[in-house]
Amino acid sequence: LHSFPTRRSSDLTAAPGIFTDQNGAIIPDGIAIRGQITTLFLAGAGGMTPTIPTGAAPDEGTPISNLPQPVQETTVTVGDIPAPIDFIGVPAGLVGVTQINFQVPNGVGIGTQPVVVTVSGISSAPANLRITQ
Does the pLDDT at position 76 exceed 50? Predict the structure, then answer.
């Protein structure tokens, strides 16, 4: 007999979608330079740890280290180059939104580049980030 850990289906389901403006650029800021830490917001990251009830947000004043984070492996690419994640979690006061602060890779080209978030092998639609230098 095999024993498998019990997991809720909500822990395994991901359908990442990056918040964008009307032009498909990441928000809050669709312009960055190489090496810069920039921010995007995402829905559909799947289960979180610590768990957070559906429709709830972390309390104001929750220490950053205690904010809910995705259970599943999450990566960011810019122009198909892996981008280091500086922070990932559900910000205090927001419901159903994950914030990712990532570093724009030094090797990415100038101009508009696609940003893709992948959660447990499931990729978001690309969003735009304009690299100016």
Answer: yes
